[in-house]
Amino acid sequence: METFLIVAGVILLIIVFMYNTLISKKNQVENIFAGLDAILKKRYDLLPNLVASVQEYMVHERITLEKITELRTQALKDNLDNSTKIALEKQLSSMLGNLMVAVENYPTLKANENFLHLQGTLNELEEQISAARRAYNQSVTDYNNAIEMFPTNFMASFMKYDRKEVFSVPANERQNVDVKNLFQK
Amino acid sequence: MKPNLASLLDYYYESMYPSLKVLEEKRLHTILTLKKAAAILLAIAALLFLFLTQNTLLKPLHAFLIVGIGGLVIFMFIYHHESAGYGSLFKDQVIEKIIHFLDPSLIYDKTNSINEHEYQQSELFLESYDRFSGNDLIRGTIEGVEVHFCDLHVEKKVRTKNGKEEWTDIFQGLFFVADFNKAFHSKVVVLPDIAERSLGVLGSWIQGMNLQRGELMKLDHMEFEKFFVVYGSDPIDSRYILSHALMEKIVQFRKKIDKSLYLSFVDSKLFLALNYNKPLFEPILSRSLLEFDYIKDYFELLVMILGIVTEFKLNEKLWSKR
Fold this sequence. Notes:
The structure holds two protein chains of two kinds. By secondary structure, chain A is mainly alpha-helical.
């Protein structure tokens, strides 16, 4: 009887431990996503300013600017799920990247103090977003490991936990920058 | 002009050589004094030993030990007294001159060190200590980045098995503080990875249990992870500080110097500690000052330290720090 109680106690402890591990990993993912979201929000707040200060100079980039405004409106809608947010963030990053390359064609804009300040702030936010993405990917990897590895996988399927997706780097960011091509534009 | 070995050679012969010749005489004189002292002490010790054993006052072994230890203590006292004077002159004539050759704006204070508060703030070594000493404080601005560093020695008192008290090192070597190029409010500590290297997965599990240090950060740079273990207070901030580029530079730096490297990032400052297990800027009494190679060693050490700023690109500030 005593042995049975001890064994049952140990099993219970293991179950509690596994349950708490999974919960903490899931919360870690959510927590870091919230951190990422906060940085993205900062960037969204900056965009109207950016658009306002560049549109009078960048007459040929009207479409890019409109697209940026549109993406911002979409991203600020409530009840978006994580994957949609990530997809919008990716598109916006690549749009902003294009815009910053196009700035090279507008020397007067490049000398504008206000624009330079915005560009600096955006660059810094990009750094923070990249850090948050890496942190998010690590937490998702930890979480995915936990729900796929023995013995926590049983507990995870019982709790109906699914794999989460890591951020993938957009294909155009992964390629090395073709400097020659940039000059020919 | 960036100082290099060729320009140092010119500087050595033009500006340092005349005063080094004088100092070399002082060095030879010091060695001669020490030799004389050793000879006299040896003679006294031998006579005393003979006297003690001839008159059977003590057993030969006891007499030998007492005379030997006594002689050694007196010799050490004389050695310290004599070499301290030479060491101080050496720092004025060699170390200070090399520093001014490298960067005339740097300020050298041979007797001062970083303060204890900064050592504690760095959180690199959490062990409690009983003796904090350092010297050779160098401070100034390199490429727009404020830095200061010194030769630091931190020890603690431990009791050995037979009840004796002994001093053991917590850290001895270079302690370097610089303004970091990014603004942040959290804390990241990068330590040499000993547990994971020797114990593998089990080691990594033990590292995760180190509650005193904070949360263990797993980073996405394989080589960096092999060399170091990282603790931080915020996962996003830790990666903001330790960008891929910086991790790569730290790995390259660690490979180049091949010594235990400790880093921490606290309150927008970078703290770096390099374990040397010996004083950094003390002279070696037995080596001649007129050998360029000997002076070159100190030059290379200082170039390496001052190079940390550009090596880690601390001068390329992000917007918020401009």
